[in-house]
Amino acid sequence: MTLTVFVHAENGEIIDFLRKECIKKGQTTPHYHHVSRPPFTEAEAVRRAIYIAKENCTR
Length: 59
Hints:
Blueprint lengths: L11 H13 L6 H5 L3 H17 L4
């Protein structure tokens, strides 16, 4: 049996911190949504998801 799993990968702890920093600075326009979610937060979460999958004997 083959099963495909999709993951919405973001590091929530880092994003929460960055979001709060933006709010403190008054940076609340839509532009700062992107600023509070830099690409490395997704990359780190993807690496973590891959690690979890490998540790659980998936292919």
